Amino acid sequence: MTKVGETLDAQLDALVAASGVRPAVAGVLKAHYNAARERIATKLANGAPGVEVARLYSAAADELLTALWRFTTETLYPSHNPTEAEKLSLIAVGGYGRGVLAPFSDLDLVFLRPWKTTARTETVAEFMLYVLWDLGLKVGSSARSVDEALSLARSDMTIRTALLEARPLAGDAQLTEDFLWRFRGMVTNADPRPFIAAKMEERETRHSRTGAVRYRVEPNIKDGKGGLRDLNTLFWIARSLAPDSPLGARVLDELLTPRERRTFEEAFDFLWRVRAHLHLAAGRAEEKLTFDLQPEVARRMGWRGRGDEPAVERFMRRYFLVARDVGALTRAMSATLEARQQKKTLSLSRLIPGRKRNLGVPGFIEDGGRLSVTGPEVFAEDPVKLLTLFVCADQHDLDVHPHAFSAVTRSLALVTPKLRRDPRATAALLHVLAHGQRPYRVLTIMNEAGLLGRFLPEWGRIVGQTQFNMYHAYTVDEHTLQAIGIINDIQRGKLKDDHPLATEVIHLIADPEALMLAMLLHDVGKGGERGQLEDGAIAARRACERLGVDPRRIEIVVWLVRHHLALSDYAQKRDISDPATVQAFAEIVGDPERLRMLLVLTVADIRAVGPGVWNSWKGQLMRSLYAAVEALFRGEDIQTADPLAEHAALVARALEGGAAVEARTCVAGRIEETTEIALAARDRPGLFADLAAVLAAAGADVTGARVATAADGTVLDVFQVQDGADQPYGQAEPRRLTSLIAALEAAARGETPVSPPAMPKSSPRRAAFDVRPVVMIDNAASADATVIEVSGADRPGLLAELSRTLSDHDLSIRSAHVAGFGERAVDSFYVTDRKGRKLKSDGLLDDVHAALEAVLDRAPEAPEGRRITAARASARDVSDLRPRPVSRKPVSPAPEAR
After folding, report:
1. Cα gap 36→43, rounded to integer Å
2. What are phi and psi of 487, to 5 degrees?
3. Are strands 714-722 and 769-770 parallel, antiparallel or unpaired?
4. Rounded CA gap, 802 and 774, in Å?
């Protein structure tokens, strides 16, 4: 026992006669435990390795528990000559048994007794647990006899898993030793395959619950795909094969190569360090690396920004690369287990042991329903087979056997400049990309093996890359692969209801390989110094030239990459009923083939951003712009559409009653997640601002809006709105929607004064984003109006404030277009002065610009509680339209170095 332990024991022993012994004991232990935890946190802050910190937290818990045990069993409830039945021991199990703990992890304990419980064993366990609960600790405990524990371990794989990591803490040493000897003997003599199969099935279930995609930008570092639990699964499997080996080290050394073993240790240490910082930053047992915690964890871990890449994005990219390594390790270990016939294969196509079939390609075989190789020498003899392996997998609709996957990862050194220029390798990639049955699945395996980034260096630079914003749900590479899969689904007619036009025109595209190559490369410029679009075009050209792509096809690919945001920007941020908008977009596109390709690419790009991003509103805007440009290419004149025709009946009601409102919530089976509210009324100064204020006061979040004004002064305002839970407004509470409709009608008629909405407090998630505001004014985009585009941090009431500011400067809003990109709002207004003219005065333009800047720079009050570390939000180009900014000064202060 250490001197510290002796001192702690003396302090506790002095409390035995105290009137309130339990709270007194808890007070002494709490002070001691907190002091130990503070010392460990200091070590962590000074850069101590993650596993070392986890072991220190475990050691601190050991000291706490053993001191409490000695006091309880020797001082408070002593038994100087216990009977056999009164013997008791305390065992740590689970992760705690392995000797690692995060700052706020549970303590998993077993009170072990020889037979049935006695009064003393119950009293000891009860007192200890109450003290631990008084300390605020989360304890997972059980009290079992030896036979009960062994019986449960035979039938319950979860209990067997916990006991595989059992470690004696205190109590009768012989009792614990005998139990562990019997348990490990039972495990050694048991068939390991059911246990391994159960662990792998449990892993799949866990992934489906936390998100089957490894690259979600708010990952669960414990239970998510590529997280600590996946590494723990490998530990458990190794321990089940060698229960007597410390941490299963002997088996891990047999199952993994030395390089993979190093990767295992590095990943384990990195993830433990992240987890410890995450717990301390959150002040609780938080396992999800949410946006509001990512910058703080990055800061604590010492990450710094580099160039235009902020620290938080560099940190998260490292996280996702580690998660990918964990996936590769799992496959490698599975391959070796199957080779040793220690892992059950569960698919019906794999029930025949040793079933192998020649596939007609030397070195490739079907093994138990999966594509495998006869050995790693297959790739050494012909490195092109690294890629043709995946063509074969797609053609035969086979999953890649873990043995083949590991052979690929161990042969990546064969990917040389010569292979990257080999026409056969290029043909293999293009076949999977543009002609494959399941390009998403196959390319994902190629990516996880590291082959795609090794063969295509431009791709390698975006593997694991994140964008610190709330708009994108996945890393850049995962987003792109999902977009490729969506194009394949469109081509096969699977998304006809959601994307009817794209499903129709995709079959008219003359060069599907160019389209798919552009989709693969469309985001390789993210993070570049020249901007996403220009750097992307340069990188795409370089990649295509290396691949030996035909020069004419290269120009199409480069054009698509450079302009892949154009259709989205023009449709969502400009008035598509304005002939000037149609003409400008048509000049960029140039011909019908590019228009078709751009439509399909844009649909897939937006839909792959994340769940709920695509909706029918965006689809209708893009289809309308597409139809207008297509008509122009056919030689037809640009028609000025009647902006009120879509809601003719509503307009008629408004002419009779002064104003009319109607609402439509989402239809079951459709993909929109908003309520559409349409209002028709006679236009007047400040009308749009009043309506926006009413919406803000009702808690309606405007996710999209458009305003159109007819020549007779009738205005139509259409809003897409959600409630605070991101659901269609009024769907959960129809009465709120009814009240909102009445309030909007009253405001449109001018019957009630409308007060400006109060500034709300920011949520922790939004407070984590430092969104740089931008104001752009363009007098060339429309023949009749000045276009003002503003972009900044979204918040309730922002639209109302912006429109009120325009009204206060005596400007009329002829058309408005509202779009949201996560934490960033992008609102475009077509405005005139009160006489219906464009804004010409430089003084007025500067005044409007400054006033809008002031609105965007207003920040909501920070949330109460823990400190939020803000980081610069990653923004796609605020606009691909690039009007000339009026401002000649920075809008916000420069960011601190991170």
Report:
1. 11
2. -60, -40
3. unpaired
4. 13
Question: From CA 561, how far away is CA 798, in angstroms rounded?
Answer: 33
What pLDDT digit, counting tens, does each position of 76-93 carry?
Answer: 999 878 888 889 999 999
Quote the Cα angle for 727-733-734, to 5°.
105
Strand partners, 171: 89
Q: How many angstroms separate the CA atoms of 559 and 278, rounded?
A: 43
Report the C-alpha gap between 818 and 828 in whole angstroms. 6
- Residue 752: what residue type? T
Vertex 257: Cα angle to 457 and 319 (nearest 5)? 50
Q: What share of the chain is helix, strand, coil (3-state, %, to 5)?
A: 55, 15, 35
Q: What is the residue whose two structure tokens read 């999209």?
A: 704
Query: Any alpha helices (H) in 98-171, and if so which ranges?
Result: 119-134, 146-155, 157-164
Residue 254, C-beta contacts closer than 8 angstroms, at least 6 positions apart: 336
d(CA 521, CA 530): 16
Instruction: Show Cβ contacts of residue 236 under 8 Å, excluding neighbours closer than 6 positions.
Output: 161, 164, 165, 199, 248
Q: What distance in Å separates the CA atoms of residue 240 and residue 232, rounded to the nearest whole number?
A: 12
Q: Compute CA distances 769 → 433, 637, 873, whole Å.
A: 36, 45, 5
Q: pLDDT tens, 457-473?
A: 999 999 999 888 888 88
- Cβ atoms of 515 and 635 within 8 Å: the answer is no
Cβ atoms < 10 Å from Cβ of 496: 13
- Side by side, the strands of the sheet bearing 370-373 are 356-358, 364-367, 370-373, 399-400
pLDDT category of residue 887 using cuts at 50, 70 and 90: very low
**Angstrom distance (rounded) from CA 502 to CA 508:** 10
For 675, the enclosing helix (H) or strand (E) is: strand 675-682
CA 714 to centroid of chain Cα atoms? 44
Contacts of 293 (CB under 8 A, 6+ apart): 278, 281, 282, 286, 768
91: part of which helix (H) or strand (E)?
strand 89-92
Cross-strand bridge partners of residue 831:
786, 813
| Cα atoms in the 13 Å half-sphere on the side-chain side of 311 | 19
DSSP lists the bridge partners of residue 829 as: 788, 816
Which range in 202-206, 217-221, 699-703 is most confidently predicted, on average pLDDT? 217-221
Is the distance from CB of 403 to CB of 332 less than 8 angstroms? no
Distance CA 124, CA 558 (A): 74
Residue 3: the pLDDT is: 65
Nearest to 547 by CA among 520, 586, 578: 520
Q: Residue 845: its pLDDT value, please?
A: 93
**Per-residue pLDDT band at 257 (split at 50, 70, 90):** confident
Spatial distance between the Cα atoms of 94 and 402, rounded to a whole number of angstroms: 28
**What count of Cα atoms within 13 Å lies in the side-chain half-sphere of residue 121?**
24
